[in-house]
Amino acid sequence: MFIFILLGCVRIWDSCVKKRGETLEDAVRREVEEESGVIVDRVEYHSSQPWPFPASLMLGCIAHATTETVKIDETELENARWFNRPEVVQMLTRQHPQGLFVPPEQAVAHQIIKTWVRRTANL
């Protein structure tokens, strides 16, 4: 079983836009594949976060990958790669040897990452 989390750093803050007539799940699948080259199937809604400009709502989802190869779209992402659970715990506690860290606790991304850490505790 492949138990890793794909994390990336965005280059453009207004990326990841749902298209008219597209379901949330289809938007997640499309955006993940466009930006990282990774194919996902099952998508779970996690939570939302208000985004003040331009009066938007950020939706956070957990998606389950069916492929492992990462090929980023450099116009949208600075980088992206798979991380194992110990590395993610180091990032959450700001103890990663390379100084990597996750977004602040009030960010939906932080909450999704913490959920993943909890879910993978016994795997």
UniProtKB/TrEMBL annotation:
It catalyses: a 5'-end NAD(+)-phospho-ribonucleoside in mRNA + H2O = a 5'-end phospho-adenosine-phospho-ribonucleoside in mRNA + beta-nicotinamide D-ribonucleotide + 2 H(+). It is an enzyme of class 3 (hydrolase). Its cofactor is Mg(2+); Zn(2+). One of its GO terms (molecular function) is NADH pyrophosphatase activity. GO terms for cellular component: cytosol; peroxisome. GO terms for biological process: NAD+ catabolic process; NADP+ catabolic process. Its EC number is 3.6.1.22. The keyword Hydrolase applies. Residues 1-106 form the Nudix hydrolase domain. Keywords: Hydrolase, Magnesium, Metal-binding, NAD, Signal. Residues 1-15 form the signal peptide. The keyword NAD applies. It holds the Pfam family NUDIX. Belongs to the Nudix hydrolase family. NudC subfamily. This is NAD(+) diphosphatase.
